[in-house]
Design brief:
Layout: H1 10-34, E1 39-44, H2 48-63, E2 67-68, E3 77-82, H3 87-98, H4 100-106, E4 111-116, H5 122-131, E5 137-139, H6 147-156, E6 161-163, E7 184-188, E8 190-191, H7 202-206, E9 210-211, H8 214-226, E10 231-235, H9 251-259, E11 266-270, H10 279-287, E12 294-296, H11 304-309, H12 316-329, E13 334-341, H13 348-361, E14 365-370, H14 388-412, E15 417-425, E16 432-436, E17 442-446, E18 455-463, E19 467-472
Parallel strand pairs: 1-2, 1-3, 3-4, 4-5, 5-6, 7-10, 10-11, 12-13, 13-14, 17-19
Antiparallel strand pairs: 8-9, 15-16, 15-18, 16-17, 18-19
Helix pairs in contact: 1-6, 9-10, 10-12, 13-14
Bound molecules: 5'-deoxyadenosine and iron/sulfur cluster (SF4).
């Protein structure tokens, strides 16, 4: 097969390293005069891919001499990494950006930057240009690796910087990274999406599907494990089609190679597209202890008519087949899913098929969304006669049904001993820790802080709505 990956060439990355050095020098000169180093505030909206991108932004900022702060008022650079997947995420960004006007008035030298999926849409970039004159820097997802140059320009040119050029997308290896924690790490294995589900903006803002080399991924995972990370989550819009355009190993093989690395760690992955979830993948999860026996498999709808209109390319029967196979092969397997309510032309009959599927699968948890019209997608042009009030009613019905299932699933853990990765202080008060089980359920238990970052066994004594509690064994 033809190699189609377009990797950012080393010369371009070198140029960006030179810009990092220039910004660093500017900051160090200022620091000598003022006696304090500059601060950056970075906030990410939306999915884990955005969180992973923000870790690169923070890594680059750190190399440029910035310290991170949680207080916007203290920041010299503010970056919002935005999400375009639903309108309410965009509204939140606009609200929060609006609130920065006062910060800028107090500190006129503050650089305000917006990046991420929203900025890759022309109508949004135009709105920022017109209505938010205090925003200094706007760049889309395809310009992430050029952030040092863009920041340098924003700092020195005296004009606003907009870089939102479209692209099929690239892969930039070796960008600096400043990870948010020391226990769990995100590792993107592919970028972009070619599926064009009719409701979804992602293929337009993140470009064509492209996979990193397995060599680069394995190297990164090995380094993370050597550094002591205990959970690796592999990220992609459709991890099951990893490497399908490139001359690469399959996703199942990638998982096997990661699971074969020495060390005490576990692996998760998201998101799987049901159309590409293979029996080989299920067999791999069954065969490798280090791969969590939890599959996030977004179904979106249980109605074949709606699935077709969504261009999902599987039927409810195909989906249930793979669920059945996984339940058969992987002891204790758990599932989570994304469900969309109110897709154009969805009727109550369609929705009832979704409810039936949800009851049949018995998910541990669901991520539920009301359909949100996205400019430029196919679904945006579809006729929609259902009222918002009806959609909200169905949505509440779905939450009730899943609430019941979730409670039942959680209650079934009582008496079981689960392997939990302790990841921080618990909410039950001093002396309690919290962690996640293999199914990614929150588990609280009494234990010493020294166990944070360790795998422990917890006997579940109580099930609450969204969490479990238990005692250390
Ligand atoms: N409206 C509502 N939900 C959406 N998602 C993606 N696009 C939209 C949209 N336009 C949901 C899907 C997807 C999840 C990440 O976000 O359920 O799986
Ligand atoms: Fe969007 Fe579908 Fe691609 Fe997921 S697979 S990012 S829902 S187009």
């Amino acid at each position: 097969m033809v190699k189609s990956v377009s990797t950012v060439p080393e010369e371009i990355l070198d140029e960006q390293r030179a810009f990092m050095k220039r910004v660093y020098d500017i900051n160090m000169t200022a620091c000598q005069q003022s006696g304090s180093s500059p601060y950056a505030f970075v906030h990410s909206y939306g999915c884990q891919q955005n969180v992973a991108d923000a870790e690169h932004i923070k890594g680059m900022l750190a190399e440029m001499g910035y310290r991170m702060t949680d207080e916007i008022g203290q920041a010299d650079v503010v970056i919002y990494n935005t999400c375009a997947v639903r309108e309410n995420a965009e509204d939140r960004v606009f609200g929060n950006v609006g609130a920065l006007k006062n910060q800028k008035r107090r500190n006129p030298s503050m650089i305000i930057g917006l990046c991420g999926c929203m900025m890759q849409q022309e109508h949004i970039a135009q709105r920022i240009k017109k209505s938010f004159p205090f925003v200094d820097l706007v760049f889309g997802t395809h310009a992430l690796h050029a952030f040092p140059e863009l920041l340098y320009e924003a700092l020195t040119s005296g004009h606003r910087v907009f870089e939102t050029t479209g692209s099929d997308g690239v892969i930039a290896e070796g960008l600096p990274t400043k990870r948010d924690g020391h226990i769990k790490a995100w590792v993107p294995i592919m970028y972009g999406c070619d599926n064009f589900c009719t409701y979804c903006i992602v293929p337009y803002v993140r470009g064509r599907e492209r996979s990193r080399s397995s060599e680069a991924i394995l190297k990164e995972v090995k380094e993370l494990i050597n550094e002591g990370f205990k959970e690796i989550t592999l990220l992609g819009q459709n991890v099951n089609s990893y490497g399908s355009k490139e001359d690469e190993i399959s996703f199942a093989e990638l998982l096997r190679r990661i699971a074969a690395i020495d060390g005490d760690f576990r692996v998760r992955f998201m998101t799987s597209h049901p159309k590409d979830a293979t029996k080989e993948l299920i067999d791999t999860i069954a065969a490798c202890d280090k791969i969590c026996s939890h599959i996030h498999l977004p179904v979106q709808s249980g109605s074949n008519r709606i699935l077709k209109q969504m261009n999902r390319r599987y039927t409810a029967e195909d989906y249930l087949d793979i669920i059945r196979y996984a339940k058969e092969k992987i002891p204790g397997v758990t599932f989570t899913s994304d469900i969309m309510v109110g897709f154009p032309s969805e009727t109550y009959e369609d929705f009832k098929q979704t409810l039936a599927l949800v009851k049949q699968v018995e998910y541990d948890a669901l991520f539920t969304f009301l359909y949100s019209k996205r400019v430029g997608t196919k679904a945006a042009a579809m006729e929609d006669l259902t009222t918002d009030a009806e959609k909200s009613r169905w949505f509440r019905e779905l939450l009730e049904v899943q609430g019941e299932i979730g409670r039942k699933r959680n209650a079934s853990y009582v008496g079981q001993t689960l392997r939990v990765l302790a990841d921080g202080k618990g909410r039950s008060g001093e002396g309690f820790l919290t962690g996640r089980s293999e199914s990614n359920t929150i588990v609280d238990f009494e234990a010493d802080d020294s166990l944070i970052g360790q795998f422990v066994h917890v006997k579940i004594t109580e099930a609450r709505n969204a969490a479990l509690s238990g005692v250390l064994v």
